[in-house]
């Protein structure tokens, strides 16, 4: 039983940053927009709270935002007018090897090159060549990666910039495992482990195809723009998006979970919330939730082609995450000097150790030598904790395929702490308070982090581009007319850049525009080609 509610042009399900980006772009075109969020606050994984001790701010999900800093989507929204400002640590990234040697990426190319040359003379020049190439490629490449699929115009620009033969070599390079790329480009462990460690910001093992694409991308972004953080916390991105939307008449309703997308005559016409309230949508419903949740729980298989339902059964989430936040009385006493100036630290392995780490996860084992990403947030942004103190987090990957026992999770937290203590004796003496976020805790705060998966689906090549979230068009359009995927399960996947939300908004605007009937016919024909003709089936359950 539903109660009649409001009618707006578009309903957005989920107030993660992608949902808020989509809502803003629709509101810019004069659409009335309502965003419904299940949690007690907007932002999804882009939130900041005091979860360790009063005065120490911790980012609940995303923390460093190089993709957001260069994203054409977020830049185009001009969020600085709504209070968003960026801050940097003295250096972007350090990787501390098990023998306590450190290697550094600084925004100063000379500093980075000198750090690499200490491992192998000549690696600094090899890095310079990559950085120079990146400067020529950055804008068209980021536009191609983050824009709608297929990226015909921007890919053509990349092709013109490089020329055909070099573009072919770039494509080969991006498909390499990060380990192979390191062997081809560098002689020393320092440069190799930087790229491999950056690949592990995804769930890709460093021996897997295309792990270079992510390792190289993040390495070049770190060199170019650093790993910037929003002043005051990641929540500043969310606050700016919400304020901008409010200026344009859009609204965000929190603690209002959607339980059903209302489909009539093959078209999405609104949503029903947990209390039975109805919000009708004249033009579109956009969903910033994982595709399996949207299709399986909110839409229902009876409204979907059977081939899509079969494909969804094969959907693969990325690794689970175990995260620990600490409030420290003073900065971490690193023995490696590189770690004292970097906002982001990689800990827990040389290249061989990172290979073993990926093998453990692939086998469903909890790694005994956890690789960690660690953030020194006050070093990057003095607003994160009281003067002289430090707000720190670290996370590691766990198998997503099984639920771990409390004893296993407690042991992994002990191992993580031991790795830090080994490289920073006295770390434990500085701990004022600690908060452990297990996979279930992450999902409880943000239902889109299914069993702790941060990227809303694996970054492996079989679930990217036209395979994301399932084999199809690589677009936000769904087989249900007027329903669009606006979250990270859609191309181009996770990270805080707003592209899935922007692509969904553009598709909704095209469907609702003057040529909407033509657009609808084209998408319908393409979906029939991929999934077959729609079937009439009885409702499930």
* Shape designation: globular
Tally of DSSP β-strands: 18
Number of helices: 19
* Biggest β-sheet strands, sense, barrel: 7 strands, mixed
The percentage of residues in β strands lies in 15-25%
**Helix percentage range:** 25-40%
Q: Assembly type of the shown chains?
A: single chain
Average of the residue pLDDT scores: 93
Task: Return the structural class.
Answer: alpha/beta
* Unreliable parts: none
- Please compute the radius of gyration using only Cα atoms: 23 Å
Termini separation comes to 16 Å
Please, could you describe this protein's structure?
The chain has 541 residues and is an alpha/beta fold. 39% of the residues lie in helices and 18% in strands. The chain is built from 19 helices and 18 strands. The strands form 4 sheets. Strands 1, 2, 9, 10, 11, 12 and 18 form a 7-stranded mixed sheet that branches. A 7-stranded mixed sheet has the order 7-6-14-15-16-13-17, sandwiched between helices. Strands 3-4 form a two-stranded antiparallel ribbon. A hairpin with an 8-residue loop joins strand 3 (48-49) and strand 4. It starts with 6 loop residues before the first strand and ends in a 10-residue tail after the last helix. 53% of the residues are buried. The model has no long low-confidence stretch (mean pLDDT 93).
């Amino acid at each position: 039983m539903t109660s009649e509610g409001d009618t707006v042009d578009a309903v957005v399900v989920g107030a993660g940053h992608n949902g808020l980006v989509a809502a803003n772009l629709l509101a810019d075109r004069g659409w009335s927009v309502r965003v419904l969020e299940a949690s007690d606050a907007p932002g999804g994984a882009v939130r900041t709270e005091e979860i360790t001790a009063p005065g120490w701010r911790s980012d609940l999900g995303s923390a460093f935002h190089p993709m957001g800093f260069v994203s054409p989507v977020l830049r185009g929204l001009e969020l600085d007018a709504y209070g968003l400002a960026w801050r940097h640590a003295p250096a972007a990234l350090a990787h501390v090897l098990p023998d306590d040697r450190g290697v550094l990426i600084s925004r100063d190319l000379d500093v980075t090159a000198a750090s690499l040359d200490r491992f192998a003379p000549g690696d600094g020049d090899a890095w310079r060549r990559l950085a120079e190439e990146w400067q020529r490629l950055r804008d068209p490449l980021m536009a191609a990666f983050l824009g709608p699929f297929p990226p015909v115009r921007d890919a053509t620009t990349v092709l013109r910039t490089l020329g055909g033969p070099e573009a072919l070599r770039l494509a080969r390079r991006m498909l390499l495992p990060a380990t192979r790329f390191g062997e081809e480009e560098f002689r020393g462990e320092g440069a190799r482990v930087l790229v491999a460690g950056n690949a592990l910001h995804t769930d890709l093992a460093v021996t897997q195809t295309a792990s270079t694409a992510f390792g190289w991308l993040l390495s070049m972004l770190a060199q170019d723009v650093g790993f910037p953080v929003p002043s005051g916390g990641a929540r500043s991105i969310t606050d700016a998006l919400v304020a901008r939307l409010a200026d344009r008449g859009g609204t965000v309703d929190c603690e209002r979970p959607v339980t059903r997308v209302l489909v009539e005559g093959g078209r999405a016409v609104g949503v029903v919330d947990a209390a039975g309230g109805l919000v009708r949508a004249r033009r579109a419903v956009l969903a910033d939730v994982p595709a399996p949740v949207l299709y399986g729980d909110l839409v229902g298989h009876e409204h979907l082609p059977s081939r899509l339902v079969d494909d969804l059964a094969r959907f693969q989430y990325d690794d689970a995450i175990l995260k620990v936040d600490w409030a420290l009385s003073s900065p971490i006493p690193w023995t490696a000097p590189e770690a004292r100036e970097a906002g982001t630290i990689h800990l827990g392995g040389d290249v061989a150790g990172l290979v073993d780490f990926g093998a453990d996860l692939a086998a469903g084992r909890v790694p005994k030598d956890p690789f960690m990403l660690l953030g020194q947030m006050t070093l990057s942004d003095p607003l994160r904790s009281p003067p002289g103190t430090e707000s720190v987090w670290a996370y590691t990957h766990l198998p997503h395929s099984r639920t771990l026992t409390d004893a296993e999770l407690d042991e992994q937290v002990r191992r993580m702490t031991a790795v830090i203590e080994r490289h920073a004796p006295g770390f434990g003496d500085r701990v004022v308070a600690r908060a452990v976020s297990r996979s279930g805790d992450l999902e409880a705060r943000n239902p889109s982090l299914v069993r702790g998966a941060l990227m809303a689906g694996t970054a492996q090549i079989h679930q990217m581009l036209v395979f994301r979230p399932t084999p199809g068009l690589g677009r936000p359009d769904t087989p249900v007319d007027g329903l669009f995927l606006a979250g990270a399960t859609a191309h181009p996947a996770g990270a805080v850049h707003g592209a899935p939300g922007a692509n969904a908004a553009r598709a909704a605007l095209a469907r609702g525009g003057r040529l909407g009937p033509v657009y609808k016919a084209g998408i319908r024909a393409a979906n029939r080609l991929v999934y077959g003709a729609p079937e009439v089936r009885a409702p499930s359950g």
